[in-house]
Specification:
By secondary structure, the protein is of the alpha+beta class. The protein has 3 domains: 73 residues, Nucleic acid-binding proteins (OB fold (Dihydrolipoamide Acetyltransferase, E2P), Beta Barrel); 188 residues, Vaccinia Virus protein VP39 (Rossmann fold), CATH 3.40.50.150; 137 residues, OB fold (Dihydrolipoamide Acetyltransferase, E2P). The protein is built from 9 helices and 25 strands. The strands form 6 sheets. It has a 7-stranded mixed sheet with strand order 10-9-8-13-14-15-16, with helices on one face. A 7-stranded mixed sheet has the order 21-20-19-22-23-25-24, sandwiched between helices. A 5-stranded mixed barrel has the order 3-4-5-7-6. β4 and β5 form a beta hairpin. α1 runs parallel beside α9 and α2 packs across α3. It is globular. GO terms for molecular function: methyltransferase activity. Belongs to the class I-like SAM-binding methyltransferase superfamily. RNA M5U methyltransferase family.
């Protein structure tokens, strides 16, 4: 192959300049945190979506950055034995999944490695001494998601709903997503059909802005109840009563319909105001012996099948004897804290979303958990206050968003000093950074990856941190 790079001599150093559309052979060494293959060309890191460890490929450069390069596969010279054909028809276009081309066994191995890579990059821990366990997977890694959030656009007068293609503003219209529960696929597709059948506008031509932004559909795996939230840019929905009546007529499984108003130009789905439109204000979901009330904005894990495994791992990490006081920070509807309740002396949970706390209180009452209290507010506000009042937790459990724990919260952990800190993470990078921040006060006993999102590069991880005695 003709060399397409240039050498600029500066003293005795050879600097390799990589250029756009340049082609070169590459051996893939590992999978990155976003599911892309990683190789090195002349000591420069190259990210290649769709490439797998051990593969020898020819790539073409698509973007050049100061510290790394992005490229696409032109030819696979040597395939990985773990490469498989992706069953999704829009897999190459849609940005929702990243690993359908990798066998499931390979995905589980890759996700453990992603956790290790994050620790290598963001901590100074001795990884040879660290217990990073094998990833806990699923028996059937398909149709596992209980909630879809499909963006809505108007194309030639017709409503489309789906996901945006990776790194672009192109919306991929999706009727059948094979990682979604069949009920969410059915309901979202039928709502699109209703909108198109009755010419309900989803875009305001006069104001040049969307009316309907997102269709959010959530199903209770065990109850079959479906909840629909229509996210709009303003309170007025054209032909709202007709839309609601048709949803109720065509989709009897939909027992809760709500509207959320989000006027801001943002990637965040929900705005601050939610309006109940029809049916119940919440749906029910069961995990083992627990039944949860889920209102429109309440957080709940997206994979109920794996959630029981995840929470059981959190319970193991907490190691409760019946005498501990437990804080469930970022508690949502109280799922983790209530899961641990039978081994705790007292549970206190908090969240900044009032609707979630209202659901947590209802759930605690329903389960007969009388030793749990729930508060609207942040842990960094409440825990120091409780400490001054003489109440200190023995165990803190946290399941933060992908951005990780707020530094004020971590400072609160340092101040309050619970004996155990159980960190349930959905982002290995922020987990590693937070562990590094706490390492002088806490020892990492082990990390247990759990695959909550098969076919994607996401991995959850339960970490047990123990307060140092020195």
């Amino acid at each position: 192959m003709k060399k397409q790079y240039t050498k600029n001599r500066q003293g005795n150093n050879n600097e390799v300049k990589i250029e756009l559309k340049q082609q070169f052979p590459l051996t893939i060494k590992k999978i990155g945190i976003n599911g892309e293959g990683i190789g090195f060309f002349k000591r420069k890191i190259v990210f290649v979506p769709g490439a797998l460890p051990g593969e020898e490929v020819v790539v073409e450069v698509t973007k050049v950055h100061p510290k790394f390069t992005e490229a696409r596969i032109k030819k696979i010279r040597k395939k990985s034995p773990q490469r498989t054909k992706a069953p999704c028809l829009v897999y190459e276009e849609c940005g929702g999944c990243q690993l359908q081309h990798l066998t499931y066994e390979g995905q589980l191995e890759a996700k453990r490695d992603i956790v290790i890579q994050s620790l290598e990059r963001h901590t100074k821990l001795n990884l040879d001494e660290l217990d990073v366990r094998e990833t806990i997977g699923m028996d059937n890694p398909w149709h596992y998601r209980n909630k879809s959030q499909f963006q809505v656009e108007s194309h030639k007068g017709k409503a489309f709903a789906g996901l945006y293609s990776m790194n672009s503003n192109k919306l991929i219209n999706i009727d059948e997503c094979i990682v979604q529960h069949s009920a969410t696929n059915k309901v979202t597709t039928e709502i699109k059909r209703i909108i198109n059948d009755f010419n309900i506008p989803v875009f305001d031509d006069k104001k040049k802005k969307p009316i309907l932004r997102t269709i959010v559909t959530r199903v209770g795996f065990e109850t079959g109840q479906v909840q629909v939230v229509l996210v709009t840019s303003e309170k007025k929905i054209p032909r709202k009563e007709l839309l609601i009546s048709e949803i109720e007529k065509r989709l009897p499984e939909v027992v809760s319909i709500a509207q959320n108003i989000n006027p801001k130009k943002t990637g965040i789905i929900f705005g601050d105001e939610t309006v109940h439109l029809s049916g119940k204000e919440s749906i029910e979901e069961r995990l083992d012996e627990f039944t949860y009330e889920l209102s429109a904005r309440a957080f709940f894990q997206l994979n109920p099948t794996q959630t029981s495994k995840l929470y059981n791992e959190a319970k193991k990490a907490a190691g409760l004897s019946g005498e501990e006081k437990v804080v469930d920070a970022y508690c949502g509807v109280g799922t983790i804290g209530l899961w641990l309740a039978d081994g705790a002396k007292e549970i206190r949970g908090m969240d900044v979303i009032k609707e979630g706390i209202d659901d947590a209180k209802k759930n605690a009452e329903r389960f007969g958990v009388n030793h749990a209290e729930y508060f609207v507010g942040s842990a960094e506000e409440l825990m120091p206050k409780w400490k001054k009042e003489g109440w200190r937790p023995d165990v803190v459990v946290v399941d933060p968003p992908r951005t990780g724990c707020d530094q004020k919260f971590l400072d609160t952990i340092k101040e309050v000093k619970p004996k155990k800190f159980v960190y349930v993470s959905c982002n290995p990078s922020t987990l590693a950074k937070d562990i590094e921040y706490l390492k002088k006060q806490y020892t990492v006993e082990y990390l247990q990856p759990v695959d909550m999102f098969p076919q994607t590069a996401h991995v959850e991880c339960v970490s047990q941190l123990i307060l140092r005695e020195d």
